[in-house]
Amino acid sequence: MEEFEALLNESFEMDTPEEGSVVKGKVIAVEAGQAIIDVGYKMEGRVDLKEFANPGEAPDISVGDEVEVFLRAAENARGEAVISREMARREEAWDRLEKAYADDARVEGAIFGRVKGGFTVDLGGAVAFLPGSQVDVRPVRDAGPLMGLKQPFQILKMDRRRGNIVVSRRAILEESRAEQRAEVIANLTEGQTVDGVVKNITEYGAFVDLGGVDGLLHVTDMAWRRVNHPSEILSIGETIKVQVIKINKETHRISLGIKQLQEDPWDLVATKFPIGSVHKGRVTNITDYGAFVELEPGVEGLVHVSEMSWTKKNVHPGKIVSTSQEVDVMVLEIDAAKRRVSLGLKQTMRNPWEVFAETHPEGTEVEGEVKNITEFGLFIGLEGDIDGMVHLSDLSWDQRGEEAIQNYRKGDVVQAVVSEVDTEKERISLSIKALGGDKFAEAVGGVKRGSIITVTVTAIEDGGIEVEYEGMKSFIRRSDLSRDRAEQRPERFQVGDHVDVRVTNVDAKSRRLGLSIKAREIAEEKEAVQQYGSSDSGASLGDILGAALKGDE
Asked: Where is the S1 motif domain (predicted)?
């Protein structure tokens, strides 16, 4: 009795555990999908086996195991303790996670579900949210292989009162990647040749994996020749040899090159393509200012728009050549330092003005279409796709240029005579009025100032008479009709009369002869005086003229 009383008093003196706390218990039986756990203090409770299982795994519990459970209530309606293994794990996990969060330490967990905007992660009893952007360094299309896999996470944010935890897998990967990247970069040196795998291709280049670190292979460093798009020579997944051109230790950026492993074709440009030589090339690119022509892989030259055609001056290069067209070009200039070659397209063809000068010497008659009419003349289309110009002054002998040009229209086919070809200035002068020859020059070829000629009266006017000489019209004014004023009457002449006159002027520009009867009479009188006498001899003028006339008879 004394012993029983002592045990009874001892049991009364023992403190029963508080509800809402974590207590230790022992598994005494496993039945009907539940584990029966003795938590002491004459209390037993039941816990579903699934609470002892990690996501995606079978329950790991057996009789005799000691476990911690959360005491929700000391006794239910059946006289059993209400306990929970999951809640105990959660409390334990929160304590552990808060410490890890404070220490900025990694925690282990497993992704077990998908929710809006991300995934759920079991952190050993506590459920955390993993945003979709924090799963990997690159967007993940299929997260299936990651489900249920135990892996480290970084806690970004947690609030125990609200029960919120946000974790990141990406932060772990980036940290690991940065360490790996630093290690790989430390083993690389500029100028080193390494193997890499093409991971991604963009318009400006390709990213190459060098074994944990990516390098950029720019499109301009892929080949010495022009590369329009990296996909022309590379494909994703391809293993290639590259040279490390530059390493930025601070940003960990690596520049790579392929062409640096090949011989620079520009080293032999001056030898293979001497100035003045003609080569066949392929048009690779056309711009507003010219066309680029590839002489060989890696060597391109520019044909400036001014060197493309002798005749097409203000035309876009695309209307003269086309991309991929093969053309003959001449090397005009080489600048090895700037890696530039100036080429000429028109130099491979003869200068059409030189050809025209050879085949059409001055005086040759040509025929062409009126291409343009300007205020100073006509432009006529000629052989070789060149133009010749007829100046206003070369349109007609009889009309002023401004009047004569009104007789022509664009598109008219006309004939002209080549008067001059200037190959340097690329000019051809033509004359329409010279087609029939120069009638004035032919008519007055032997006539000089002071000559006596015979003209025919063609018209009588108040101010004088109109006369004709070899088809050329002239006018003799009233004052030049006679030395004697009384005889200066136009009506004393009749149309058809032949009259001897003296030439006072030959104006080739105005195509006129200056004529005078009066000047002829004065000249005859002067000649008679010199031949038959003088005023000092006492002979009268009538005697002298009479003797002169008698001598003529």
From this structure: 20-86, 104-170, 191-259, 276-346, 363-433, 450-518
